[in-house]
Amino acid sequence: MHDVGTPVYDLKIVNATIVDGTGADRFAGDIGIRDGLIVAVRRHDGPDPALDGAAAETIDAAGRLVTPGFVDIHTHYDGQATWDEVLDPSTSHGVTTVVSGNCGVGFAPVRPGREDWLIRLMEGVEDIPGTALAEGMTWGWETFPEYLDVLERRTFAADIGVQVAHGAVRAYAMGERGARNEPATPEDIAAMAAIVTEAIEAGALGFSTSRTVAHKAMGGEPVPGTFATEDELFGLGRAMAAGGRAVFELAPTGSSGEDIVKPASEVAWMRRLAAEIGMPVSFALLQVNAAPQLWRELMAESQAANEAGAQLHPQIAGRPFGMLTGFGTRNAFSKRPTFRALDDRRVAGELDDAAFAAELARPEVKAAILAEADLPSDPNVPGDSVNLAMQYMLDRMYPMDPVPDYEPLPDRTVVAIARARGEEPLATLYDLQLADDARTTLMVPMFNYSDGDHEAIREMLTHPASVFGLADGGAHCSMICDASQPTFLLTHWARDRTRGERLPLEFLVRKQTMDTAALYGLTDRGVIAEGKRADLNVIDPDTLTLHRPRMVHDLPAGGGRMLQQATGYIATIVAGQITRRNGQDTGARPGRLIRGAR
Questions:
Q1: Which of 49, 179, 205, 351 sees the fewest Cβ atoms within 10 Å?
Q2: Which DSSP symbol is given to 430?
Q3: What burial class does residue 368 get, using C-beta atoms within 10 Å of its C-beta: 0-12 exposed, 13-18 middle, 19+ buried?
Q4: Which parts of the chain have pLDDT scores under 70?
Q5: Which GO molecular function annotation, any one, does this entry have (predicted)?
């Protein structure tokens, strides 16, 4: 509605149930917004007078929650941000600030002519289609400050901050020696350090690196910096701190379960680094099946570090972590010749989705695919070997309902369903994948589900050392849509969980607003208070729903990605402007590049 009279506010939200991001109890109240800031907050039970004055627009939020906009600190929009203003899938889930440049991969600095190498690195590590990056990206920079200048000229549906990535820095400073992970000399470290300091001074929010051998470029080479010595890591950490307030972020050795011996030694050097430079260090932490209790040890070490004055924060996920499978994406039949031929026809446009599904449903096609031997995996296709491996994961593969259950019981695995039907598991999997016109998805929880429930995740979320992250918005396009986790925290953990203890809504909002913003020094947002940025969500708590992920092909060059729809977001507001109404993009683009901590 629009008020009559001279507007005092650009936007007014009245009769809201306000969850302010601090963890304090919710309260009934009104919010006044002007010039992109919250200028008035009135509690209905407080001593201040009612929020008088006209507004250009008023939202009556009776029966609705109003929260700060969510701050997602782990995304990979480094390339997408050069062509896409929406920054989906994150902005579909109430995210109003994203931090990109994680895990040691990014696009600046870059030597002229080496752009394709960085694309192949990003494609290999983060499963972002290289064809989409090659067609969609607009370059125009060499140095990291120049990259920020390019982003600063663009507008977005959310604010975006960027970290400077070890992989790009190493390859720029050391050339092929850096790309091949050869040891860095003192001169190399000094050259990289100068680049990192320059990047932080220009506005980078942090420095990121990867030390897990699971992160590989298209050619199979680990990310530059994977085997960096402590001299190199500490040299770059000091350089980051010399540039200003920033975060040292990493995917550590063992984070993918590939080495269960080294994580403790990884935490030891991180603790020493955090203490020396006086800056936060944040690292990915998941429950791995090979050592399902190891995360507790690493959490305890991190808490001890914090109590001793070093800022060490394990970055954790809010649900099982793994991948999705189905006929529309990677699946156990992707290497069968008959399926491969059909999928090639779909990609070429010869078959639309309905025709593709109809072909797969033909009994003779099913019989042929089930009977065929697999083609060999292609080392030039990132993650291609995963397709073959899925055939051996059926005992931990779960079909997803239209409203997914992320905490399924063992009788929901493909193997259990096949046993109940008296069928071969692969035949059962084939039929399950045919659901929803062959667009259904199944989940394979590879991490955070060792015990078959969410109790470990609940402990991670509530641990005082942890920070919420790992949503990977913009990345792993064919495997996941974990950018929906902000919605999942509010639906599963606050309202819908049945197999264990839920968590308070106020805590879950704080975990992804004030706490994530504070880690990166973004203290101008993440809390509903006078003087803070007017980044907000208006949510219907009763109808908020997270739907089953689905593959779409809307990236440049027809590239595919998993998207997951949410309903129940009444409005998302960035800097006082409504960017989404009832889940639909409004076209407003108030989001800007964030330069440095606030």
A1: 49
A2: H
A3: middle
A4: 1-5, 255-263, 379-383
A5: hydrolase activity, acting on carbon-nitrogen (but not peptide) bonds, in cyclic amides
